[in-house]
Amino acid sequence: PITMAPGTLIDYRLRLHGIPLRWRTAITAWEPPFRFVDEQVRGPYRSWVHEHTFEAHDGGTAARDRVRYEVPDASPFAALGLGAPFLGLVSGPMRGEMGLGMRALGPLGG
To answer: How far apart are CA 35 and CA 5, in angstroms?
Structure first.
């Protein structure tokens, strides 16, 4: 398991439509049990800021993700003719790979 704290670096190896990606993010905010933020250090985006928030909901925890990102002008996907579809990767395959979306969890902080 990864010890989470501000400054923690996380390396990912993903395959997106068969294309291997290496991605590194840094934890820039760590406020358990309410929120944390990871930001891209190296990867396919010009910028990527992913905020995870947690709140009590119906005896459990609602987890929400907010992602702000910028697509680079010359991404590896543009070279493959996938420049415009690159924008949809967050809502498609990347959503599953990165666990984005709302998830039902146990009680907050428990």
So the answer is: 12
